[in-house]
Structure formats: structure tokens, C-alpha cells
Amino acid sequence: SEPALFWPVGYNWSLLMPNRLDHISFLPFAFLPFPLADNLWWFTILMCQALTSHRLGRYVGRTELSGWATMIFWLFSESTLREVNLHHAPQSSLFLLPLLLEFCLRFQSENGEKKRKYVIIISIIVSITTLTYYYSFPFILILLAILLFKKPKYLLTISIISICIFLPELLFWVSKNPPL
């Protein structure tokens, strides 16, 4: 009873290397026939990218127009178009990056209790993004170090919380896959 996509002839997605979250996000569409399921999944990914980039633009520019402009620039950026065109699901699923940027900006402008709330939100976003694409973790930490360079205590806290959240998944994957 191994999990499979595109039943009945599917494949065991739990052993794929190493990005499981994009496969798990496909499960609501798995009961549909192949072209329809795949297209709906990609539409959902692009919609998530549109919504999160719109939110970032609206926060930064403080207008609806800046939200729409950011969304259009994000969706038609070379990296988004390339990864979607090449069907690189993990890289295309990094739609939480605009939210990460937004909450880092919010974190910088707040004090006290809200700062702690943003540390938890940023940690969850970093964890989910890392589960989506493991190789993004060092780059996200570099981005956070640049954005939060005056707050090393918070950067360390975010890193520790994020690692604690995604470490069980990483250990599971390592235990199921033989070394190279």
C-alpha cells in the first residue's frame, strides 16, 4: 500500500528526491485524469504565486495598483516562466517567498509582541518553503541575514525554529533513501 499518483499505474512519490510537498499538494487532483489534473495543479500554483506577490506589492506600495503591478512582474519574471515552462514543480512552488519578504518588512517596522508573532510566521514560511525545495534553505537564510542583519538574535531564533519544524521530514527522507 505505497502511495501513488495517477492510480492505478502511478509511482511511489514518497521515495522521490527530495521534494515531497509539491507531490502532497497534488493529491487533491490525483483522482482526475492526467492532463486535467496536471493543468489544474499548475493553475493552482500560479494562482498562489499571483495572490502572494499581489499581497507583497500592496503592502510595499500601499495601493492596489502596486499590488497588481507586483503580481504581473512576478508572474512574468524570467525565473517563474522558466520553471513553469520546464515543469520544475519544486522551484515553481516557492510562492511563499513574497510572503517571507512581506513579513520580514513587517518585522522590521514593529516592536514587542508583534515582533515575536512575526518571528513565528517567518519560521513557518521558511520551513514550508524548505519542505517545498530543500535546496532553497541556505539561500533563504542568506536573504534573512541581509534583511535582519541588525537583529542576529531573531535570525538565530528563526533558524532554530525552522530547522525544528522541517528536520523530522528531512530525517524521514534520509532514512528512506540510500546514500549516493
In short:
Helices cover 71% and strands 0% of the residues.
Secondary structure elements and their pairing?
Layout: H1 21-26, H2 34-61, H3 64-75, H4 78-85, H5 89-92, H6 97-109, H7 113-132, H8 137-147, H9 152-176
Helix pairs in contact: 2-3, 2-6, 6-7, 7-9
Characterize the structure shown.
The chain is 71% helix and 0% strand. With 180 residues, the chain is mainly α. Helix 6 (97-109) packs antiparallel against helix 7 and helix 7 (113-132) packs parallel to helix 9. The longest helix is centred in the first third of the chain and has 28 residues, at 34-61. The chain is globular and about 55 Å long.
What are the main properties of this structure?
180 residues; mainly alpha; 0% strand
